[in-house]
Amino acid sequence: MQTIKFGLLIALLNVFTTVYPAKFEASHLPLAGNISASFPKLKATCFIIANKETSLVLHEKNSRYKIHGGAFGDLIASPYGDEEKTTLYDMCEAFAESFDSLRNKPKLLENINGVEICFFKSPMSGVGCAFKYKNKNSCGFFCALYGLSTKEEAINDAKSIANWLDQFFVFNASKQGELIAEVPVFCGEQNRIKLTISEDHNLLTSQNYSKQITKISRYRTAVAAPINEDDNLGAVFYATEIFQNPVVRQLTSDITIKKADVTKVVKDSFAYLIFGASYYEQKRKISIAPHCG
């Protein structure tokens, strides 16, 4: 464990203090070299592949560009259906949320060799499809493709992606309730606070390329009251062999600590000025074993 200078950490913390409102995270992209090289060539001009269990985008191309949704709004009841243009990212998110209801509409959802797929078309953007695929490791992926010429091209691209997805599984890197550290609280009614994992941290890994994950916990060595529930107190970075950037999960407070009386505040304030503005980094390697089943 080593102390990191406060000034340096400000730049590093920008990564995990940014709020990403979307349900599928993509800040860890692009793919690492070997994984990217193994991806098949597609006819689609834009695509997105996401995993709901980890809330991660596995791969994408032009998924944030505005495109004509065409018949997509008629296919899925979503807040994006009334707009003339939307993004493929939004389409994939809406498809994942509406997928169970689509199973009651067999004319819209087809099963082609284990791929549950639906098709839509726009005069401006061509043929597209959205599909769900559960691979041989029982991991489910939601995908959307667009910019194709024919339905057959969409099917061929979906099959190529499905074959590529068979290498992946979900790995539980940290369990809910795991204690990361216990740090002192200055100026508060309580003297210490525990930093714990608030929910399971699940990651995507490859049986072909993944051997281990580097887990880096960065957190404040001391915090000052008041502390509110869900306040950001640090983060856990997971460096994998899948993505070029780490997957980041925030460490947040699960309790509220009010400010103490004036006497304790004055006393603790001097100590906090001396000891409070620093961070710790804790690093360890984790061997990989499948989580899906």
Tell me about this structure.
This protein is α+β, with helices and mostly antiparallel strands and 293 residues long. The chain folds into 2 domains: 135 residues, D-Ala-D-Ala carboxypeptidase, C-terminal domain (Peptidoglycan synthesis regulatory factor (PBP3), Domain 2), CATH 2.60.410.10; 128 residues, Beta-lactamase (3-Layer(aba) Sandwich), CATH 3.40.710.10. It is built from 6 helices and 18 strands. It has a 6-stranded antiparallel β-sheet with strand order 3-2-9-8-7-6, sandwiched between helices. The chain has a 5-stranded antiparallel β-sheet with strand order 1-18-14-16-17, covered by helices on one side. A 3-stranded mixed β-sheet has the order 12-11-15. Strand 8 and strand 9 form a beta hairpin.
Which structural traits does this protein have?
Peptidoglycan synthesis regulatory factor (PBP3), Domain 2, single chain, disordered N terminus, 293 residues, five-stranded antiparallel beta sheet, 6 helices, 2 domains, alpha+beta, Beta-lactamase
User: What percentage of the residues does DSSP assign to strands (E)?
Assistant: 35-45%
Low-confidence stretches: 1-22, 77-82
From the spread of the alpha carbons, the general shape counts as elongated
The helix count comes to: 6
Number of domain units: 2
Instruction: Determine the structural class based on helices, strands and strand pairing.
Output: alpha+beta
Tell me the Rg in angstroms.
23 Å
The CATH homologous superfamily of the largest domain corresponds to D-Ala-D-Ala carboxypeptidase, C-terminal domain
- What is the CA–CA distance across the termini? 35 Å
The CATH topology of the largest domain corresponds to Peptidoglycan synthesis regulatory factor (PBP3), Domain 2
Give, in order, the helices and strands.
EHHEEEHEHEEEEHEEEEEEEEHE
Mind telling me the CATH class of the largest domain? Mainly Beta
- Biggest sheet descriptor: 6 strands, antiparallel
Based on the structure, what is the oligomeric state of the protein chains?
A: single chain
Helix content: 10-25%
CATH architecture of the largest domain: Sandwich
Order of strands across the widest beta sheet? 3-2-9-8-7-6
Beta strands, count: 18
